[in-house]
Amino acid sequence: MADTSRPDHLPNLRADRQPPHPSWLPRQRRGTTPQMIGRYPDFDVLESQDSWDEATRKVVLARLEPPGPLRFFTAAEEPTLRAFCDIVLAQDEDPRVPVAEFIDDKLADGRLDGYQYADMPDDGDTWRLVLQGLDEAAEQRYGRASFADAEVPSQLALVEQFSRGGLYGGAWSQLNESRAWSVCMRMALTAFYSHPWAWNEIGFGGPAYPRGYMRLGGPSGRASVREPFESRGAVDKDPVRLVQDEGS
């Protein structure tokens, strides 16, 4: 496990300004997490499934079924979609939450968020233009045929530029870039954190209905405050406070 008493685990204080690979976290011993690492190595949310009602259990367990082929994105778009999702969510190896498939299903079925920015195309067109723009930028800046063909440092650089509104021309001229980033990240993060493997990674206890919660005293590392189904984290320090203290 990394030494978190020193500030060099923080991205802005490391020589390369990149966060350490999450492999410093313990290996998962129970259940599944993305890449089989996490802060709660002995927690498996699926052990609580008997406390969920039948409808809830059916919805959650369906997310664990093997994903089918993409229906919205084309075969040419798929590699860039997968590479983008892996980079922004730091899913470097299997097991991975099938974020690309979740996004594809949502767009193919038209299950959108119920609103659209006035100066933006619909979400499906936004995604297609973003993938096209990433491919164009990879070719212009790094001489690669597509974003998926670029090396990881190049992909990281392009994604950072996208997040800051720093990509221009081509497909990007048809988008409000900051809104496009918001659309894509909202959908990617929603997909990732809807999956039980992500719940295991963050120690989330899953649906509260009809079980409910007993301990309402706020966050604490004390066993008396944790729910009976919650697991103690492998790292005791509050990560938010840790970053605030060492970044000041």
Automatic annotation (TrEMBL):
It holds the Pfam family Gluconate_2-dh3. InterPro entries: Gluconate_2DH_su3 (IPR027056). It comes from the Bacteria. Residues 1-36, 221-248 are annotated as: Disordered. Residues 1-19, 224-248 have a biased composition (Basic and acidic residues). This is Gluconate 2-dehydrogenase subunit 3 family protein. It comes from Mycolicibacter sinensis (strain JDM601) (Mycobacterium sinense).
